[in-house]
Amino acid sequence: MTMSEAARETSCDWTVTGMDCGSCATKIKDAVARLPGVSGVEVGIMTERLRLTLDEAQTGRDKIEKTVRALGYQIAPRAAGAKKDFVLPDAHDGHDDDHATHEGHDHAGHDHGPKVTSAKRDDSGHGSPGHVHDDPADRGKRWYQTAKGKLVIFTALLLGAAWVIEYLAPEIGKWAFVAACLIGVAPVAQRAFAALRMGQPFTIESLMTIAAVGALFIDAAEEAALVVFLFAVGEVLEGVAAGKARDGIRALANLVPKTAQLVTGDITREVPAASLTIGQTVLVRPGDRIPADGEIVDGTSGVDESPVTGESVPKTRGPGDAVFAGAINTEAALRVKVTKGAEDNTIARIIRLVEEAEEARAPTERFIDRFSRWYMPAIVAVAALVIVVPPLAFGQPWDTWIYRGLALLLIGCPCALVISVPASIASAMSTGARRGLLMKGGAVIEAAAKVDVVTFDKTGTLTHGRPQVTDVVPFGSTTEAELLAVAAGVETGSSHPLAIAILNKAKDAGVSALLSQDAKALMGKGVVATVGGAAAYVSSPRYAMEHGGLDGFGLRQATIFEEDGKTAVAVFREKTPLGLIAMRDEPRADAKDAVRQLTAMGVTSVILTGDNPRTAAAIAGSLGLKFEADMMPEDKLAYIREIGTQGGVMMIGDGINDAPALKQASVGVAMGSGTDVALETADAAILRDRVTDIPATIRLSRAAMANIRQNVTIALGLKAVFLVTSVFGLTGLWIAILADTGATVLVTLNALRLLRFNPEREA
Predict the structure, then answer these.
(1) How many Å apart are CA 392 and CA 396, to the nearest integer?
(2) Nearest-10 Cα torsion for 677, 679, 685, 691
(3) How far is CA 278 from CA 30, 185, 314, in A?
(4) Distance (Å, rounded) from C-alpha 229 to C-alpha 453?
(5) pTM for the whole thing?
């Protein structure tokens, strides 16, 4: 590809409404991918999203939209490249005249996203009876008020009228059923023909059309009309089931309030929450949701963060504390300074993560997708053989075997099989998101289900990450104040937990840090900076010994601290020891219980820490797990690479210092309450800073994979049973369509069980 060609390609993004089974996504993907200049096509069933790379010199966006509409779906463009384009379908901002505005839309009391009017319906018959897909305007309505519901009622009336005519005038009753069948199947045939023109002969619409018309030719008009009606009923059931599967994810978009109380001087006025910018101040009254990520500047109140982290107990927050958009202020009025724009707040990033996660498809899903591509032609070939071989080879009656072949065609649709994985994955991700457990797609869920070993970073993961100075031991003529002044000078500007502990100690002691410059990290060993015109170090005792910064007495003292589970750092200048500072970071209260749960699940737990063996042993011994100490980042990487050859490995870290290890592990999990790193660096994130959420994540992943296996068994099992019964003439056309629709509905409903799954409950 030349530079000019690459420059012409743009990333395009649409919302496609009406996908209710896996074959819908496959149909759209295949049709669009055939167009010139189109590449990288991704279709998300649960997020109703179409993304692709397009060379508009070869194919225009209008051609993409026309192709999708011709298949019977509605499509509306999303603003390409806009940072605000993070929300799920039904909650994104309109951006052209074909979209309804959101002004005045009240989220209260709704369990679905704001209503969005999709691109204009075309005149190709979309909306007429047949495989009619969800209209965005139908959301929130009862089934009989939707386009699909009206279709069922229409076909039921046709069928009922045919039965009445047959009863009153038997001689023309047959033709009444023929008319009912043809009227009902006409739009289905129209869409089948549209798919055929796009190179897709094996769709549910084409199979349905062949079966219905074939039934008419073998004088089974009444059954053909019944099959058309049952097909319409199945469409309603599939749409309802798919909609419920999306609701859990879609509800995330409603956590952030639509409006905010902006404070400007002494004036408070209501403004759209999406218009808030960094630095503005908002008033959050008791009972209100916080409209943006921010920092409290005035007031103290209990803040219920359960919408974001799943933690149901409100936490007391005051001036200087960070708060999340979507959290609920429970007690007193707060003034909050906005620290992140609407497109970057925690809820927005969670939604963006969920939207994009569907692209990271599980290996099982990719296999089923490949399997379904040859499965459909194989079914059609088998049906043809069933129709042709018995009459030609054994003199059997044609009408009997045509009928059985048509039933086999209807049974063969792979909708249930294709939807079995994404429905389970979407439900699991929704369940996890409600509890602060975020996983980036099916591939991560599948990998987490196979984890045998969990490796933990120590500081900030198994411990609170907020160590406090317990001992300050100056050497020689150095005073405690001088020791702290030098150490604080070296650590000024650092965000490392040990650095913060030293800076806090100096502040509490009233000691001012010496001016420093040229601070440089010594990877895994400490920090060096120019303080008072000369180099000064804050490092591990081992590094200090190697560079003349610690003598035998100092090393013995450091050893005593470490045996007590403290972390000791040496402060020194070139060849001149200044003293030791000891700190302790207590294990999290739930760390021991988390290790116990993992052990009960058959998972081995290991601490990987850069700390010394004695400190690591003190922490590991209290928690009952193994440890590896004195590990540099490259050592952690090598350790995970080695044990990864024996099974699945999950690494838990802070997402920055442990980045290589997080990437090397089968699943890298970042702990942190909604930080950019926690949401964007690793494969998964734990928002509540609870160690017990690690076994909960594995438990949820295992439940999701078990659910997928159940779904595949249901889909293939029902197919196998009814394929056999259809060939032997035990079941007919209407049972065949019920079996196909029933399988799709069953696997979707089974996937919905994951929405009620509690991963925190031990089996």
Answers:
(1) 7
(2) 50
(3) 43, 56, 26
(4) 53
(5) 0.63
Provide the pLDDT for residue 531. Answer: 93
Tell me the helices (H) and strands (E) count for the chain, helix number first: 24, 26
Using alpha carbons only, what angle is made at residue 536 by residues 655 and 480, rounded to the nearest 5 degrees? 100
Architecture of domain 438-463+587-692: 3-Layer(aba) Sandwich (3.40)
DSSP E strand stretches across 299-436: 301-304, 315-317, 322-323, 328-329, 334-338
Helices (H), 492-551: 497-508, 541-546
Residues known to be catalytic: 457
Long-range interactions of 2-6: CB distance < 8 A, separation 24+: 5/55
In the predicted model, is pLDDT for residue 581 greater than 90?
A: yes
CA-CA distance, 115 to 139, in Å (whole number)?
A: 7
CA distance 707 to 715: 12
Residue 595 tokens, joined = 């290790």
Pick the CATH number of 468-584 from 3.30.70.20, 3.90.1140.10, 3.40.50.10490, 3.40.1110.10: 3.40.1110.10
Residue 234 has pLDDT above 80, yes or no: no
Kind of pairing between the strands at 49-55 and 38-44 = antiparallel
Which amino acid, 333? A
**Residue 142 burial (CB < 10 Å; 0-12/13-18/19+)?**
exposed
- Is 70 exceeded by the pLDDT of residue 684? yes
Residue 678 has pLDDT above 70, yes or no: no
Q: What is the Cα–Cα distance from 74 to 66, expressed in whole angstroms? A: 10
Between 248 and 117, the more confident residue is 248
Share of the chain above pLDDT 90, in %: 26
Using left for φ > 0, alpha for ψ between -120 and 50, and beta otherwise, residue 379 falls in: alpha
User: What kind of architecture, by CATH, is found in domain 259-344?
Assistant: Distorted Sandwich (2.70)
**Which listed CATH number (3.30.70.100, 3.50.50.60, 3.40.50.300, 3.30.300.30) goes with 9-77?**
3.30.70.100
**Rounded distance between C-alpha atoms, residue 445 and residue 575, angstroms:** 52
- Residues pairing with 13 in the sheet: 51
Beta strand 648-653 pairing with 667-671:
parallel
Phi, psi of 575 (to 5 degrees): 60, 15
